[in-house]
Design brief:
Largest sheet: 4 strands, mixed
Radius of gyration: 23 Å
Order of helices and strands: HHHEEHEEHHHHHHHHEHHHHHEHEEHHHH
Number of strands: 8
Shape: globular
Strand order of the largest sheet: 6-5-7-8
Amino acid sequence: MSANVDMNQRPDPDQVLVDIADYVDSYDITSDEAYDTARNCLIDTLGCGLLALRFPECTKHLGPIVPDTVVANGARVPGTSHVLDPVKAAWDIGAMVRWLDFNDTWLAAEWGHPSDNLGGILAVADWLSRDNISKGKAPLMMRDVLTAMIKAHEIQGVIALENSFNRVGLDHVVLVKVASTAVVTKLLGGTREQIIDALSQAWVDGQSLRTYRHAPNAGSRKSWAAGDATSRAVRLAMMTMKGEMGIPGVLTAPQWGFYDVLFSHTNKDMALKPEEEREFKFTQAYGSYVMENILFKISFPAEFHSQTACECAVQLHPEVKERLDDIEKIVITTHESAIRIISKVGPLANPADRDHCLQYMTAVPLIFGDLVAEHYEDDFHKAHPIIDELRDKMEIVEDERYTREYLEPDKRSIANAIQVFFKDGTSTEKVAVEYPIGHRRRRDEGIPVLEKKFLDNLRTRYPDWKCQAIMALTLDQDRLEATPVNEFMELMVST
């Protein structure tokens, strides 16, 4: 037999697929903290989506692909009157919640925003509930949504702990696609084997490059990429439920598998990794760790590596606001990931470019004492040339301790420090914040602010009576969990 002939013996499913499927299919979430945090994540994520509806660049993408399409028992899109098929509804919800870079974050070897998975989860849960009711069956409950959220967070976050996709040029939304595929297949009634098959389709799919997140190509695709990923997950899950076969060796197949094709080199020098380094590494099993430790963006719609820098800048604002022309330099002390991902010099082309620029996100609150989504818009940037003047005076310095503690499991700090030096030789104190207000270590301080953020976001879309009704429901854990999904989504509709 020729040595070039492939052995056509179908392999057992890759262990990574099996582990995820076993977790989604049979693991029982027992953590009250995880469910409470998932409820807070739900309201925060929806609030971010509602706020995004103020921006035409977001809303122009929403609604049916073919105008005036009517979908019987379709899924609703919060804050709108759209009733869509679950694939497009997942896209819309996912794009909304990610548009302003204001939803939760997970930082590890890979980073991302696990609440991006809510697009697929909510769309499928609402459609299934309405379809079930039309057939005389019971709807899904919001506890089912929270359970799916916890598990999607866990899948995305645990894989991200030790495996960097950005270093090989892949965008983190691959993990949204994988996590959403797993939990959505389960919501659709999929078996363990069907979850494995659907997961294999997610891994074999074409994966997004990070080009649209980095200078000089940063642009608005980064605002809808996660919606696209969770939507694709719904499509793959639904295809699997119709009997589409899986690809069991999708990760490990020699030459053709994910590891050899997409995970075998480093972005730094493109040198091939040793074979033993091409497979994913795991340091813990799936549970509820990620939801319990999720990072909320409570105060600023800004890339998370800059959140503490924004806090530092707000603290310094009263001291520097009258001396902006006297500034000689601004030293930002930070961690390696911030330098690699969001440190930029030179012109910033659009809002998506600005909300991923450490220097811009520091300059604005130094000048104005706050940072809101409107501060990234072209008109605002053009009207305030002082922003770029301060950017040109910034020096970025790495603190090795900040870099180290960013990755330590018991810390997961996201530290930044700022010191401003003036032309007369004086300077401010070096102001440091190591844990942002959305960190687990600051939950008691952060949750009341998160709830206020949600109420403020509701008021951008609904009359006061509806805002109060939504708040009353979503702040009551037991009542929310016992609410049918379709009734919850009806409350979120806006005409």
